[in-house]
Amino acid sequence: MAEASAAGQGLWMLGVVHRDPEGEARLLSWLRRLAPQAVGLELSMPSVKLRRERGEALRAKLAASLRHCLRGDLADAVEAGGRPPGVAGDLAAALEVPFELLAAEAWARQSGAALELLDDPVPAAQAVSLLEGELLEAPNVALLLEQEAKVGRAFDPIFEQYALARRYFADPGLFRYHFGTSEAEAMAARDAYVAEGLSRLCERHGCVVYVAGWEHLVDGGLKTIWPAFKEPSTAPGTGRAQRRLVNADPADEP
Questions:
Q1: Which of 22, 151, 191, 213 has the smallest CB count inside 10 Å?
Q2: Strand ranges (E), 136-247
């Protein structure tokens, strides 16, 4: 980890695994250490609004679909506000207010830092439509449970995402094979949108933290946001950007 004197200046890009149950505490620890004057998030208003206004109703829909699939045990856990093992827990987690927002809001209240949602609202609105539509319907939930059963174990997306993140951060050349062409193009378009807002945020504040899914911070030949900011000339007023993966307490970082 950089010395404490590095806090209070520059652009820091923190890669996270979305829906990490320990993510809020981990991210807040980083924010307190870096003490940014502004935080930008890979989130948009449509996605936040859905989870805050419709999260409970969608959780009830998921529980009903699980009961339809004769998985009352999983439905009980979802109705109790928990995350059952495997894909059912991942679906439940997708309905929660993102931990990135909760941690950033806590830091903003504590420090007075600015907080901005930087993601493109158009694809976010499409994702909202999917969540409100077919994703939680009983036939789709049944299919996901069937696929999980064929693997022979409960799917652990958080563990597997951290494993992928560490692999690609260490060997970014492999990352070009992680996405299909259409996925890579969609991510490039989103990151280009975010880059404009992040540049403006950097121009207004001396120390900025940008928090995004780890995939956006891999320099593997794809047009992610990290290559656009790793050189000093592209991060106005910040010098060279720094990048970290938020999978441990910042005090443990080298």
A1: 151
A2: 207-213, 242-245
Q: Taking the CA atoms of 120, 123, 127 and 133 in sequence, report the sign of the dihedral they define.
A: positive
The continuous run of DSSP H or E covering 12 comes out as strand 10-16
| Residue 10 phi, psi dihedral angles, 5° rounding | 80, 180
The whole-angstrom separation of Cα 105 and Cα 108 is 5
* Residue 115 · residue 38 · CB < 8 Å: yes
Mention every residue, 6+ apart, whose C-beta is less than 8 A from residue 171: none
Q: Confidence class of residue 250 from pLDDT cuts 50, 70 and 90?
A: low
Q: Could you tell me if 96 and 43 are in contact, meaning their C-beta atoms sit under 8 angstroms apart?
A: no
- Highest-confidence range of 19-28, 124-133, 215-224, 227-236, by mean pLDDT? 19-28
C-alpha span between 7 and 55 (Å, rounded): 36
Q: Is there a contact between 31 and 102 (Cβ–Cβ < 8 Å)? A: no
What is the C-alpha R_g of the chain? 19
Beta strand ranges found along 147-196 (DSSP E): none
Task: Give the CA distances from residue 246 to residues 22, 25, 66, 166, 236, in Å, rounded to whole numbers and listed in that order.
Answer: 10, 10, 32, 11, 24
